[in-house]
Design goal:
Blueprint lengths: L6 H4 L1 E6 L2 E5 L12 E2 L3 E4 L8 H5 L6 E4 L8 E4 L11 H5 L5 E3 L8
């Protein structure tokens, strides 16, 4: 399963974290087990992310930072798009993510 590229219409914005939006499918606040999608222009589905670090290594403008997610079943850290406003739409992060947890859409750039 990959990140839902239509999350802006199928999910609800529930909070802000590190300057970006957080979305969940049911509109409920994130829990330890269900973290939702973080970011808008650069969106990371925390429930899919396995924290292999490829996106952090390959991003030429350092969009991502590690964030602790203790007790999450996939991994206890996640690649958080804390600097999504710096994204240059190269799509390297999308290409290297082994679980398709990242979606970058240039049309969402102004909606951070």
């Amino acid at each position: 399963m990959a990140i839902d590229p239509e999350f802006e219409t199928t999910y609800e914005e529930v909070e802000r974290h590190e300057g970006h939006r957080v979305w969940t499918p049911d509109g409920d606040e994130p829990t330890d087990e269900k973290q939702g999608i973080h970011g808008t222009h650069v969106a990371v589905d925390f429930d899919l992310c396995i924290a292999d670090g490829a996106c952090l290594e390959d991003c030429p403008v350092d969009v991502f930072e590690w964030v602790d997610t203790p007790d999450h079943p996939e991994s206890e850290i996640k690649a958080d798009p804390t600097h999504e406003d710096q994204c240059i739409d190269c799509m390297l992060c999308v290409d290297v993510c082994p679980v398709d947890a990242i979606d970058v859409d240039p049309s969402r750039a102004g909606r951070i």
